[in-house]
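Q: What structure does this chain adopt?
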Amino acid sequence: MNAVLKSAGLWLVPSLLLMQGCAENEKTYQVRFSPQVREQPLACGTRYTDIGTSRGAIELLDFKMYVRDVTLVRANGERHVLALEQDGTWQRDTMALLDFEDGTGTCDTGSPLTRREVVGTAPEHDDYTGLEFKVGLPPEMNHLDGATAPAPLNAPGMWWSWQGGYKFLRLDVRSQANESFYFHLGAAGCKGSVGEGFTCTSDNQAMVTLSGFDPDTHVVVLDAAGLYSELDVERVPDGTSDGMPGCMSSAGDPECAAFFKQVGLAVDGSTLSRPDTFFRVR
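A:
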């Protein structure tokens, strides 16, 4: 019996050491995001020209985005989902809020707090070459009460209603012709109640896959010039076929198709091949 126990003990020692070694190989990574207009930083209070099909001008009003399931991809295809830092403000479970406006200039309805990175741990490797993440929230979290939900699900201006759910991406700009030109990405065709639950015809969860990404050296660029490349930011809605400037995720809105294309979605929520014009690696 003692021999058996001794043998088992000898087996446990290297096993425990191996487990400790694996734990020590975890590393904290920061996946950084950079809002831009081409190569210029996208900032509050700055006017950007030569935008879209009409070569119009825009100024930033608000820019926030929810991302989830942020995943680092190795050269051999192995994937590691970041275990996010649970900071009580920007990150919860697998979800993170990014906030690119600082409450100055044209963004005076916002706050001075900003967040431009997702922070989490993953196994340490020197051959990460890709990044994956979803723009959106898990469907089961999409119909919480934004007024009482825990951070970061309580961000002002990022909740439509119980039925509509959250805005996964909100980018508001001002053009010469429109006081506000919107892109609000969220689930569409939602029905239900708090008691019975909700269903949506289109969850509109965009999957972003980027190659050539090293978390230690690269950033994810969000290029507004690319987002508006097939849109007329100076177009004034006629009130009949188009009720508002920009897109709020309605399949019938004539401007939504061009916006959705940039995040890799069709207006019915199905997946499209995404051009490398809004999301790209630098």
